[in-house]
Write a structure and sequence with these properties.
The structure holds 2 protein chains of 2 kinds. Chain A is mainly beta. Chain A is built from no helices and 11 strands. By secondary structure, chain B is mainly β. Helix content of chain B is 0%, strand content 46%. Chain B is globular and about 40 Å long. The N and C termini of chain B lie far apart (37 Å). At the A-B interface, strand 5, strand 9 and strand 10 of A face strand 5 and strand 9 of B.
Amino acid sequence: SQKIEQNSEALNIQEGKTATLTCNYTNYSPAYLQWYRQDPGRGPVFLLLIRENEKEKRKERLKVTFDTTLKQSLFHITASQPADSATYLCALAGNYQLIWGAGTKLIIKP
Amino acid sequence: GAGVSQSPSNKVTEKGKDVELRCDPISGHTALYWYRQSLGQGLEFLIYFQGNSAPDKSGLPSDRFSAERTGGSVSTLTIQRTQQEDSAVYLCASTPLQGLYEQYFGPGTRLTVT
């Protein structure tokens, strides 16, 4: 069956450093992949979409890579700030629906 | 403009009771999704509405769960004879077009079954 793995342990990063989150998947070849941010008590908020023919996508301090050979996406936040602390979810495009990872909690320490 | 809204924000109910959860999508969005999120778990797809097409109910966990969407806008998720394992956050999302574009989520309804 399709499986998506995100690091279940919280990631602690010092302010100003680059945070890198990983999304691995198996038994699937998605046409594209999305990253969302979720704060406590709120619904996820869309950040970036990357297609299978794109190796990298950037938006301000965010960068996403998509390696279809490794079946992996990396999500980078450069010059991280305490306000970046949240849970980050990756989601792969299925037929009519997105298939979601459980998310990684990111904590940026001042 | 207004985003996706959901009500109630919190619902505590006794085991065996029925509950109704409501979602108001963004005006003009044709696709609407319901998800369930349990602590530490990914979003679990429940049901998908697209325009006037028959909904995709493949994610509904049992026949106690049902959903409808009236007039292509507001949607209601109904859980009959609630069980403790139904406790979770229920999220609604809408998208402007058919297809897997970015989804706009509501704040969710936290359901607790005692």
